[in-house]
Specification:
Blueprint: H1 8-16, H2 22-40, E1 43-44, H3 48-63, E2 75-79, H4 106-113, E3 117-122, E4 134-135, E5 139-140, E6 142-143, E7 146-150, H5 156-163, E8 169-174, H6 180-186, E9 189-192, E10 219-224, H7 227-237, E11 264-267, H8 278-293, E12 297-300, H9 308-326, H10 337-358, E13 363-367, E14 383-385, E15 388-390, H11 397-405, E16 409-416, E17 422-428, H12 434-448
Parallel strand pairs: 2-3, 11-12, 11-13
Antiparallel strand pairs: 1-3, 4-5, 6-7, 8-10, 9-10, 9-16, 13-17, 14-15, 16-17
Helix pairs in contact: 2-3, 5-6, 7-12, 9-10, 9-11
Domain Amidase: 24-311, 340-438
Pfam family, one: Amidase
GO cellular component, one term: endomembrane system
């Protein structure tokens, strides 16, 4: 058994059957961290001894015949923004350099309660505010496929650690493609659930117990090397938690087993006015052809009659208003409340348009981002897309559309381009349909190819 690259599901089964111990599972991942983290710089705040004690306790519980849950003894990491008791939560921001929460946030607490062994945090963009993971506290994370390229952001440390075999899964946040873009860049899977599906409580350092201002568009979701792992972690972390009052009481269903011939898939190699590399657009079209050959009903998407560039601008404005509300002192000219409600009404129109579109389709297949992993650069530097400069700020555009609308979307690996870099494709579903969306992704895996191990790991 190749422990470091085994799936979460397989690790849990092997530990439960006592084919391997929790300590052996931990040691295999620590060895991978020791071998590769110096170059990749994905893992931060490593709690080696604490994790070993937790793994020993998991093994002792099994000897006593006690099962701790579906993750019994499985090691894992968390993006460095989840509040965790006894471990720093910094979001790569110097004022939070030594912040340790008094208690676990709901996501960390549920994963631990399921038997998971938290090893470390993973690197982020400072304050989660960029599509490269670089910050003054821990430096820059590189892509395991090519160390000269970014792993993406803001969940770049999570995606890189998973791709490099340092952890079987992680949980990130996604306000503007921050799970899906790094997952695509690193060749792993990432799920952004429907808005208000997974608790946002404890999803950012909050030493003063301030009022939570981020209440829209930001979502918490898993990253892993397989759809089955995404489904397992999603089912553990989703649902009402008693702390985030925005959570919808929608049942979390099991992932269904679906046949491609029963599906209706719309595909869009690009969106109007959005740049994309030929390789990514061609990958969308190629999978669409294969889906059709497999018996699915496939059609080129007649996208909603929306100004998607305006949607992105409106989404940015909403984020700006939420950030304004989080400031300790109001600005000299605060945003009028009427503008907030106007922005929500504008967003409602977009949500309803996408709802209507997806009533006719099981899912939309489209790009995750306009390019594959790009070279490390200063934020704001134009990005080459097939040799042509494109705005840096368009990097998350394909994903951010669905943060604005709140629909669930996932990134799935689909081979590599001519430079040997992973291509990720996006699958978008109806609101509250994460389980079905995951089932569609699993049915498509024979076509997309699934996770590939980066050379040298």
């Amino acid at each position: 058994m190749d422990i470091a690259f085994s799936s979460t599901v397989d690790l849990a089964m092997a530990i439960a059957a006592r084919k391997i111990s929790a300590v052996e599972a931990l040691d295999a991942h620590l060895a991978q961290i020791d071998s590769h983290n110096e170059a990749v710089n994905a893992v931060v705040s490593l709690d080696r001894e604490g994790a070993r004690e937790r793994a020993k306790k998991a093994d002792a519980a099994l000897v006593r015949g006690e099962a701790l849950g579906p993750l019994h003894g499985v090691p894992f990491t968390l993006k460095d923004m989840h509040e965790t008791a006894g471990m720093k939560t910094t979001v790569g921001f110097p004022p939070f350099a030594d912040y340790v929460a008094k208690e676990d946030g709901p996501v960390a607490g549920r994963l631990k309660a399921a038997g998971g062994v938290l090893m470390a945090k993973t690197n982020v963009a400072s304050m989660l505010s960029d599509w490269q993971s670089n910050n003054p506290l821990f430096g820059r994370t590189s892509n395991p496929w090519n160390l000269e390229r970014t792993s993406g952001g803001s969940s770049g440390g999570a995606a890189a650690a998973i791709a490099a075999g340092m952890t079987p899964f992680d949980v990130g946040t996604d306000m503007q493609d921050s799970i899906r873009l790094p997952a695509a860049f690193c060749g792993v899977y990432g799920l952004k659930p429907t808005e208000h599906r997974v608790s946002l409580a404890g999803a950012f350092p909050n030493p003063g117990d301030a009022a939570r201002s981020v209440r829209l568009m930001s979502c918490v979701g898993p990253l892993a090397r397989s759809v089955d792992d995404l489904s397992l972690i999603y089912r553990i972390i989703a649902g009402s938690d008693g702390r985030d009052t925005d959570l919808a009481p929608v049942p979390v269903e099991d992932m269904p087993k679906l046949e491609l011939k029963t599906l209706r898939i719309a595909f869009a190699p690009t969106f109007p006015g959005f740049p994309v590399t030929d390789a990514i657009g061609s990958a969308v079209e190629n999978i669409a052809r294969q889906l059709q050959s497999a018996g699915a009903t496939v059609e080129k998407a007649n996208l909603p009659k929306l100004d998607l560039h305006d949607d992105l601008a409106q989404g940015g404005a909403l984020i700006g208003m939420m950030m304004e509300a989080a400031q300790p002192e109001p600005p000299d000219e605060p945003t009028p409340v009427s503008r907030w409600f106007e922005a929500l009404a504008r967003r409602d129109r977009s949500i309803l348009a996408w709802n209507q579109f997806l009533e006719k389709h099981d899912a939309l297949l489209c790009p995750v981002a306009m390019t594959t992993a790009f070279s490390h650069c200063e934020p704001g530097t134009p990005i080459k897309v097939d040799g042509k400069d494109q705005s840096y700020w368009m990097l998350p555009a394909y994903g951010a559309v669905f943060n604005y609308s709140g629909h669930p979307a996932l990134s799935m690996p689909c081979g590599q381009n001519s430079d040997g870099l992973p291509i990720g494709l996006q699958l978008v579903g109806r609101r509250w349909s994460e389980s079905r969306l995951l089932g569609i992704a699993r049915a498509m895996t024979p076509l997309t190819g699934g996770f590939s191990r980066p050379p040298g790991y």
